[in-house]
UniProtKB/TrEMBL annotation, chain A:
Keyword Repressor carried by entry: no
One GO cellular component term noted in the UniProt record for this chain: site of double-strand break
Listed GO biological process terms: double-strand break repair via homologous recombination; meiotic DNA integrity checkpoint signaling; mitotic DNA replication checkpoint signaling; mitotic intra-S DNA damage checkpoint signaling; nucleotide-excision repair; telomere maintenance
Keyword Nucleus: yes
Family classification: Belongs to the HUS1 family.
InterPro entries for the chain: HUS1, HUS1/Mec3
Subcellular location per the Swiss-Prot or TrEMBL entry: Nucleus
Protein name: Checkpoint protein
TrEMBL record, chain B:
Gene Ontology BP terms: cellular response to ionizing radiation; DNA repair; DNA replication checkpoint signaling; mitotic intra-S DNA damage checkpoint signaling
One Pfam family it belongs to: Rad9
Family: Belongs to the rad9 family.
Molecular function, one GO term: exonuclease activity
Domain of life of the source: Eukaryota
UniProtKB keywords: DNA damage, Exonuclease, Hydrolase, Nuclease, Nucleus, Phosphoprotein
Record's protein name: Cell cycle checkpoint control protein
Main location per the UniProt record: nucleus
PANTHER family tied to this protein: CELL CYCLE CHECKPOINT CONTROL PROTEIN, DNA REPAIR PROTEIN RAD9
InterPro entries associated with the record: DNA_clamp_sf (IPR046938), Rad9 (IPR026584), Rad9/Ddc1 (IPR007268)
Lineage, opening ranks: Eukaryota, Metazoa, Ecdysozoa, Arthropoda, Hexapoda
């Protein structure tokens, strides 16, 4: 990685993931890097990064021609901490998979210095290479058919609201209708608070009636965690709802970062 | 002793006190003819710091009629000292000058802060047990001498994990490497290993006799580094080899700072870190290994009334002693650093005095043999039968059923 913006984006992405989970899987293919986070075997986050945008040089060799993939499992907190040095105007970064008594992701950071030679910082993050027989568990998640797919309002605004709602109730109800109204709602014993956003683009809807609403109730903390992705400056965020089953949030930055986020609905 | 510190210099003193707080619990204030020293040593005696302010630092300094014994006996608790200089920012903005007074035979030392708005705050800090802190270390004999801008090392340290405990410094012909120290026992699977390389060109001075590496504690070093960065003074580093102390020095026209840290011995068995405490009722002092990583070795040394003698122990560690009639010695010997700190404790207790006299002629060094090394680990065979020559797997029931396939 040479580009300052690419290094910043990559650091931000790893940082957000590190706040979500303690264990994450990285899948390397010749074209992309996929970070995936699973909770109880159900996929929660699936982030695809196009390698050409981030890396100026990218070499990988999988087990065989047909199975040209590498699966790694590691603690994203460690990776995020190691990338912390990038904040100090790094010149370049190299990420390598090495074997130093154990498999490691070696991050070589080149930092500017007072003299001609640049400083070099090396971090070894221990990882586990996932054997082939377990690969099946780490495949891309199936995306279900949605009852409604609607654009999200600006994450910044949603974040402000959810931050306050978070203190009122552990659960949040999202609903959307064909008319382009998207609402966030919390219920407490003493009050019901809801915020409505209007005139949002509806991409698809199974509803016949204009007035019909699709809703799902989810864990507000997990939803709030998703809003941290605002830091990567997404170009578009879609909220897809399957009535009372699952909320899928899809976020993309140009076409090099695609993030799928799954929130199962909870029942009261 | 009376001195006045003006304006911006008060902030330097405040920062120095803050740096000392992170190292030790007690502070020794030592006035000399032309200088004033603030010194501390940490609890396990593995770190020692010395901030000496020279005549040019003060706007007024007079040694007065202090006796040597008074001058060498001022110890105050760190907590009382930090209370005087609690907020550095406020001191920077509001304090006009700071006066320090130490009378001969006093029980208190006076810190007077004069504020710009006319307020005068007088702090009376009680002097604790009179003790003398003596250290011996030699910068000139060090085979490796480095010097660099404090910012270089500061930037380097920022690449490391916040809660890092120990760091390894390795010198090579062309570059200096900093690594976080990973204990073999802690397991590698859950720790990040970080290595930071600094080119030779970043140092103002890079004299290395031989390539070596040392490991030392980060906490004290960081507080020293913070101070160094705030006063923008180059740092000099002096050391020899693992197990010998490392000395960090800052020097400019108005002050000189030394930090001596113990380093981890690469050969653990030869390392004995002992701290001797003196209990007045006992004639023997029991050494205790402070550091868990270090194998225990007990030294029982009885010392009373030793007339200016220094004993070379068989360990090759010097015990440096200085004594005085009716002074009982408290020794702190530290093999791993060989920073010898000898403390004299005045003893007013009559009973103890008698005991001292009784034991006057009694000078012996008693050593308990090294505690036995831990038993050699024998490989415990779980499937012992499998290794026997007569073993035939086919005799076992179900030998041909594969329960688990071969891994990648």
């Amino acid at each position: 990685m040479m580009d300052v913006i690419a290094m910043r984006d990559f650091t931000n992405i790893v940082n957000v993931i590190s706040r979500i989970t303690k264990q994450c899987t990285l899948r390397l293919t010749p074209d992309e890097l996929c970070f995936s986070v699973s909770v109880d075997r159900a996929s929660m986050v699936w982030a695809e990064l196009t390698q050409t945008h981030f890396f100026t040089e990218y070499i990988m060799n999988g087990v065989s021609e047909e199975q040209n993939e590498i699966y790694l499992e590691f603690d994203p907190i460690m990776l995020a901490k190691s990338l912390g040095s990038l904040r100090m105007t790094a010149k370049s970064v190299k990420i390598k998979l090495t074997n130093k008594r154990q498999p490691c992701l070696t991050i070589e950071i080149e930092l500017p210095s007072l003299s001609l030679e640049s400083r070099q910082c090396l971090h070894d993050v221990p990882v586990r290479v996932i054997p082939r027989r377990e690969w099946a568990e780490h495949q891309a998640p199936n995306i279900p058919e949605f009852d409604i797919s609607v654009d999200m309002p600006q994450l910044k605004h949603v974040k402000h609201i959810v931050e306050r709602m978070k203190n009122m109730s552990p659960r949040l109800t999202l609903d959307a209708s064909k008319t382009g109204v998207f609402a966030l709602k919390v219920d407490t014993d003493s009050a019901t608070v809801s915020t409505h956003f209007q005139e949002l683009q509806v991409w698809s809807s199974s509803q016949r009636n204009q007035e019909d609403k699709v809703s799902a109730t989810i864990d507000i903390k997990k939803f709030f965690m998703f809003l941290a992705w605002d830091i990567v400056h997404p170009d578009g965020v879609k909220c897809n709802i399957v009535q009372d089953r699952v909320v899928n949030l899809f976020l993309h930055v140009a076409d090099f970062v695609k993030i799928q986020y799954f929130l199962p609905s909870v029942f009261t | 002793m009376k001195c006045v510190i003006a304006g911006a210099n008060v902030k330097i003193l405040a920062k120095a006190i803050h740096a000392l707080t992170k190292i030790g619990d007690e502070m020794y204030i030592e006035p000399h003819e032309n200088t004033l020293s603030f010194r501390t040593v940490n609890m396990p005696n593995s770190a020692y710091a010395d901030f000496t302010f020279l005549r040019s630092y003060f706007s007024y300094y007079v040694y007065g009629d202090l006796q040597e014994s008074d001058a060498l006996k001022c110890k105050i608790s760190m907590r009382s000292a930090i209370a005087v200089f609690k907020s550095i920012n406020l001191i920077d903005k509001q304090v006009e000058s700071c006066h320090i007074n130490l009378e001969s035979d006093a029980s208190e030392i006076l810190f007077i802060l004069k504020y710009k708005n006319g307020i005068t705050k007088t702090h009376l800090l009680p002097i604790l047990d009179c003790e003398v802190l003596q250290t011996t270390y030699n910068k000139d004999s060090a085979s490796i001498k480095l010097s660099s801008q404090s910012q270089v090392l500061g930037d380097a340290m920022r690449n490391f994990h916040q809660n890092l405990v120990e760091i390894t410094l390795e010198v090579c012909a062309q570059k200096l490497l900093l690594r976080n120290y990973v204990d073999d026992t802690s397991g590698l699977s859950n720790t990040i290993r970080t290595q930071f390389a600094l080119g030779k060109g970043e140092f103002d001075r890079y004299d290395i006799g031989s390539e070596t590496s040392i490991t030392f504690c980060v906490k004290e070093f960081k507080s020293f580094l913070n101070f160094a960065e705030s006063v923008v003074t180059p740092i000099s580093i002096y050391f020899e080899e693992a197990g010998r102390p490392v000395i960090f020095t800052l020097k400019n026209q108005s002050f000189e700072v030394n930090l001596v840290l113990s380093t981890l011995c690469s050969d653990l068995d030869s390392q004995a870190e002992t701290v001797l405490t003196n209990k007045p009722q006992e004639t023997s002092m029991r050494g205790r290994a402070k550091n868990k990583r270090v194998p225990k070795r007990n030294n029982n040394i009885s010392s009373n009334k030793i007339q200016d003698k220094s004993i070379k122990s068989t360990l090759g560690n010097d015990i440096h002693k200085k004594s005085h009639p009716h002074l009982m010695e408290e020794q702190i010997k530290q093999a791993s650093t060989s920073t010898e700190v000898a403390k004299r404790k005045s003893n007013s207790n009559d009973a103890n005095k008698e005991e001292n006299l009784d034991d006057q002629s009694d000078l012996f060094e008693d050593k308990i043999p090294n505690s036995p090394s831990p038993p050699n680990k024998k490989a415990r065979l779980i499937f012992q039968k499998c290794f026997q020559k007569t073993f035939d797997p086919k005799t076992l029931p179900g030998y041909d059923i594969i329960l688990v396939e071969d891994s990648d």
